[in-house]
Amino acid sequence: MKVDFWKNKKVLITGHTGFKGSWLSLWLQHLGASVVGVSLDPPTTPSLYVKANIAKNMISLREDICNGEKIKKIFEKYKPDVVFHLAAQPLVRYSYDNPVETYRVNVMGTLYVLEAIRNINTVQAAIMVTTDKCYDNKEWEWGYRENEPMGGHDPYSSSKGAAELLIASYRNSYYGEGSHNFTAIASVRSGNVIGGGDWAENRLIPDIINSFQRKKIVEIRNPNSIRPWQHVLEPLFGYIKLAESLVNNGLDYAESWNFGPKDDDVRTVQWIVEEISRQWGGNSGWKKDGKSNPHEANYLKLDCSKVNFRLGWSPKWNLNYALKMIVEWHKLEQMNHDCKKICLSQIERYMEAK
Q1: Are strands 226-231 and 266-268 parallel, antiparallel or unpaired?
Q2: Any domain includes 2
Q3: How far apart are CA 179 and CA 295, in angstroms?
Q4: How far apart (Å, rounded) are the C-alpha atoms in residues 179 and 340?
Q5: What distance in Å separates the CA atoms of residue 231 and residue 192, rounded to the nearest whole number?
Q6: What are phi and psi of 94, to 5 degrees?
Q7: Cβ neighbours of residue 288 under 8 Å, at least 6 residues apart?
Q8: Which of 139, 175, 267, 288 has the most beta carbons within 10 angstroms of its beta carbon?
Q9: Is the peptide bond before 46 cis (omega within 30 degrees of 0)?
Q10: Could you give the number of structural domains in the chain?
């Protein structure tokens, strides 16, 4: 990461009030960027956005990304150099009950952001965030590469696969070789992102922490499911590093990228809950919920060979240390420590890690 690169750089982030967007907004503020955020209200109460006072050193706007005309006017007014598109409906279980909203936000919202970028000529780089679940998951034991087919069993996953096809179409149609548009657009797919300050419903780590804080046994839906777990700072570091390469090298990096953990950190849900329980201490424990739950993939893994080789990116923190950072974050928050300072301390530690 080139710290000086971001000094006074004009950055627009969609979805900045969410968990991942809040960490990214704080990190870019810390690097000296001039940050504008576009989002709805924070999706949870409590939220990292409020707890860490993310809005203090940025312009924070409330707007639905599906309001195409309003989004276009925001881009025209602030003329960003770099765009990070994170706004989404991000939950698998929620998508089963709300498929129309899921497709509207994840597909049409992405379309309106792409149109807003196309409408101005200031954006040098755009990072379009999707998910590892965009792939047509065959439950293979090996990782998916960036050129594997898109798919998705549930509405959330398939909406993200559709968003990937949309992004590729815009890149090929309007920003290819010989085009007069110079924006370099990349899509990024990360694993199961975890970290301090996540209070989303029906998500494993928040469910575990919430139960342990209340001294209750946590109920787990699919203890044998295997996921590519990674601390939130890992893919965010990759997105920031990729954005620098897009600005400096243009179309050479304008493609899709996987940002996943090392093979040793692809673990079962049961392993995660037992390791957090060990680190948390006390009488924490878990049990299977015994309910009938909608389909979720049992096995999913990313192949990150391309990003390791071409971008020089690889995870810095192993999963044990990532869980340690989460336990530390929530124990300090429980003791009323300043959440922004907790986040910045962990960001600094990450940047110093080799």
Answers
A1: antiparallel
A2: no
A3: 43
A4: 43
A5: 8
A6: -65, -35
A7: 219, 220, 221, 223
A8: 175
A9: yes
A10: 1
Nearest to 320 by CA among 286, 278, 350: 278
More confident residue, 141 or 311: 311
What is the C-alpha separation between 171 and 182, in angstroms, rounded?
11
Q: How far apart are CA 119 and CA 185, in angstroms?
A: 14
The residue segments making up the domain with residue 99 are 7-352
Q: In this structure, is residue 97 part of a structural domain? A: yes
Report phi then psi at 267, rounded to 5. Answer: -125, 165
287 within domain boundaries = yes
Please tell me the total number of residues recorded for the chain in this structure: 354
Q: CB–CB of 198/42 below 8 Å?
A: no
The two three-digit tokens of residue 270, written as one number? 């049961």
CATH number of the CATH domain containing 206 = 3.40.50.720
Question: What confidence tens digit (pLDDT) does each residue in 61-77 have?
Answer: 999 999 999 999 999 99
Q: How far apart are CA 28 and CA 37, in angstroms?
A: 11
Q: Which phi and psi angles does 62 have, rounded to 5°?
A: -105, 110
User: Is residue 1 situated within a structural domain?
Assistant: no
The per-residue DSSP string of 289-351 comes to: ---------SB--B--HHHHHHT----SS-HHHHHHHHHHHHHHHHTT--HHHHHHHHHHHHH
Q: For residue range 258-285, what is the model confidence (pLDDT) as tens digits?
A: 999 998 998 999 999 999 999 998 777 7
Q: Cα 61 vs. chain centroid, distance in angstroms?
A: 20
